Amino acid sequence: MYSSAFISKTCLAFLFLLYFVGMDLLLYFRVQDYDVRPSVNDTRASSYRSPILCDLNPICTVTVKAMTLDHPNHYVLSPLASLVDYLLGISRSWMWLTPNAISVSHVAVALIGARYITRSSLFYRRIGVILFQVRAWLDDLDGHVARMRLNVKGERSDVGSIGYLVDGVCDGLGCIALAVAVFFFLRRNSNHRAGYELLPIRTLSSSSSSLSSHNSVSSTSFWKSPLYNMLMVGLHFSLTSIAWNRYISVYQDLLETDISSTISREDLYDRQTVVFRSSSFWAIALAWKIFNFHAMMDYFLLAIFLDRIWEYVRLAWWQLPTVLFLLILISELHYTYTYVEILSVNESLRSSLYAFPNV
User: Fold this and answer.
1) Whole-prediction pTM value?
2) Residue 34 — left, alpha, or beta (φ > 0 → left; ψ -120 to 50 → alpha)?
3) Helix (H, G, I), strand (E, B), or coil: what is residue 149?
4) CA–CA separation, 154 and 62 (whole Å)
5) Cα 125 to Cα 115: distance, rounded to the nearest angstrom
6) pLDDT by residue (tens digit) across 11-58?
7) Alpha-carbon gap, residue 113 to 25, rounded angstroms
8) Which of 25, 51, 152, 204 is 20 to 30 A from 231 (CA-CA)?
9) 166 in helix, strand or coil?
10) Residue 156 CB partners (closer than 8 Å, separation 6+)
11) Could you give the C-alpha distances from 333 to 97, 256, 340, in angstroms and in order?
């Protein structure tokens, strides 16, 4: 018989999954009727009638970053940040509270949450997970406040700006705090029932020398130790963040800016819209939505909440990196092909466009 707590968690997880799938479907149909760069004298992009305030509706303003943002951030935390700002008027009235100050504050929350995650009690670790979700919400809030004050509509990355760099550093510090906390937890709870113990070391024969025995134990214990495994998790987080931010940047430049002087603006906008609505771009965006940096953090926090840290750590040995490298390969090929298709004027120019620096 399943316990009532297990049934409740399962039902809650199913409801969230159903909500995320439903929102993805709404977003897909929204994209099919959306001009990412409206044609000259064309008002179709503004014809959408949002049932609620557009700032609170995650599918009202469609952008490259929004399409690749993980489900909890896009459909829960970001609208919640917009709602709080709308009710309290943070971006309009609290001018003393800068986006960078909010970014720094979520580092402090992450450090407190990390302290709870080091505890042996599952209850305290779950409090730590909740605090990291508060950190993620503050991360959404600082971006929302910055965009409102700059009058920028929708999710976009201002690559190269001071705010972008500060936010990236603060996100990195939060990730490091989480990884270090889990390392200390694993080291202190090597015999935990959920499988946090070190993998068994092969018993050496009695005829083996004490020196070879010592070397074998030391070598094996390192490769299966909490330190090694958390380094692997941290490396995967880092590579995922770098790759995800790269493709947000290059696709923003490709689909949301005027990048060509060889074709007319209207023709350029039409080509960008065709790519934005294509099934191939939707598939790549959805894949990054599931496997981006914030999604990996969400999965890790869920593993901590469910007391299944070791199961996640084992995925970081090779399964998750394999998925990441395949996604990078497919994204790079798609971006290169799309870049040429959007900017090409005729067949004679195709070869020269392949040599463009952004490709």
Assistant:
1) 0.82
2) beta
3) helix
4) 7
5) 9
6) 888 898 999 999 999 999 999 887 766 544 444 445 677 788 888 888
7) 34
8) 204
9) helix
10) 63, 64, 65, 147, 252, 256
11) 42, 19, 11
